[in-house]
Amino acid sequence: MTQTDARRVAEIGRYRVLWEPPRPDLVALVEVAAQVARVPMATINLITDTEQVQVAAVGFAASVCAREDSMCNVVLHAGHPVIVPDASRDERFRDNPFVTGVIGRVRFYATHQLVTPAGDVIGTLCVFDEQPRELTGEQEHALAALADRVVDLLELELRTRELSATLAERERLHAELERSNEQLAAFAGQVSHDLRNPLTAMSMSLRLIVEQLGEVAPGTDEEEIAWLVTRAIGGVDRMESLIDGLLAYARLGAELSRVEVDLSAAMTEVAEDLAPALAGAALTVGPLPTVVGDPVQLRAVLQNLVANAAKFTRPGEPARIGVGACRVPAGWRVEVVDHGLGVPAEQRQRVFEPFTRVHAKVPGSGIGLATVRRVVEAHDGRLGLAETDGGGTTAWFELPG
Q1: Residue 112: C-alpha distances to residues 14, 74, 296, 301 (Å)
Q2: What are phi and psi of 60, to 5 degrees?
Q3: What is the pLDDT confidence band of residue 275, given thresholds at 50, 70 and 90?
Q4: 135, 154, 176 - which closes a domain
Q5: How confident is the model at residue 183 (pLDDT cuts 50, 70, 90)?
Q6: Looking at the domain assignment, is residue 320 inside a domain?
């Protein structure tokens, strides 16, 4: 197949008319063409790499023939209309089966190329008769205009189909968005109910302990207790801030704040908050950049990814986690690398959907990675999962900067 044939076949395929029942609008147009030329027969031919397909016809039954038997194929790329008063006297056509009687007995023959907006000739509008005849200048002009209308009709149907597909996709995405928002709203309500109340009680209790301790002498057990309680209060405050941010972002239309965020400092806080989960784990943190974004949300991204790395370990093995960053063309790429259970390749996109879990035996809600995706995409970033060398998961996200 030549490059020209390949382009033509591709263009014809886009119109989806080859093997469907004749379209009434195209049939009506060839009827007009026959009336304009005052002949009994007219057709729209589309020519592939191997065949001529008559997609609409008047005066005879539309059919398919081999391309080498087609009269129109001979002058398909003539670049202008071809009008032959008597094909039996024209050396280009006198031996053609449509002229000799094998397929037909065409004498008068006029063909106008069908040219797409891209400039590809896909076929012809053809009128013919079994008697020799001539066309007037007005008839020739009208047939040329009708050939253009054939392409207009094909393009109109194509654009209508594309628009319908776009609208259907938008409706699907809108339904998915509504479903996602319902899930987020339900999650937000659960967070508010299940975490905020006990967290408030914990905060009050810790602050009462600090008040009762009062002034403590350096080097005493009370000083160590006061330090631990103060540290716990800091963790509670950060958790309250995190919950506030997540709840605000879960509301439809909520906006992120845009400030400079030191991810190294955020990672230090994450390590403190996850100290119990990271007990016994080997955590290595490399230099992390400062980016522009929402500090609460970006800390939540790091916390979810590191928490997952600590949770999904191989039986009997401590967690080994590495956090680092590097420059990429779009900005910064941050990676959280573990050597744990890993995520099968076919599941690496699905796990970012709400309430999706791969390892059912490991406790969890299935909301962590969905939150990560929502936050990263809200920051105009990208994210994904890859396999760690030697086994495990490398979770990464990229942020502009």
Answers
A1: 21, 13, 67, 63
A2: -165, 170
A3: confident
A4: 135
A5: low
A6: yes
Judge whether 132 and 85 are in contact, CB under 8 Å.
Answer: yes
Count of structural domains within the chain? 2
pTM of the model: 0.48
What is the rounded distance in angstroms from the CA atom of residue 302 to the CA atom of residue 144?
A: 66
- Structural domain contains residue 277: yes
Using alpha carbons, list the distances in angstroms from residue 370 to 5, 306, 379, 384.
Answer: 47, 15, 14, 12
Q: Which of 148, 140, 80, 64 is nearest to 108 (CA)?
A: 140
Q: Which domain holds residue 10?
A: 3-135
Q: Using CA atoms in the order 133, 138, 142, 147, what is the torsion angle rounded to 10 degrees?
A: 60
Q: Which of 91, 117, 135 is the last residue of a domain?
A: 135
In the predicted model, is pLDDT for residue 256 greater than 80? no
Residue 294 covered by a domain:
yes
Q: State the Cα–Cα distance between residues 203 and 207, nearest whole angstrom.
A: 6
> Taking a C-beta distance cutoff of 8 angstroms, is the pair 259, 266 a contact?
no
Residue 169 lies in a domain: no
Q: Report the run of H or E that residue 292 belongs to, with start and end.
A: strand 290-293
| Other residues' Cβ atoms within 10 Å of the Cβ of residue 323 | 22
**Which tens digits make up the pLDDT trace of 16-27?**
898 778 899 999
User: Checking phi first, is residue 210 left (phi over 0); if not, alpha (psi -120 to 50) or beta?
Assistant: alpha
pLDDT digits (tens, 9 = 90+) for 50-88: 999 999 999 999 999 999 999 999 998 888 999 999 999
Residue 243 one-letter amino acid = I
| Number of helical (H) and strand (E) elements in the chain, helices listed first | 10, 13
Run of H or E including 124: strand 121-129
Task: Report the phi/psi class of residue 112: left, alpha or beta, with left for phi > 0 and alpha for psi in -120 to 50.
Answer: beta
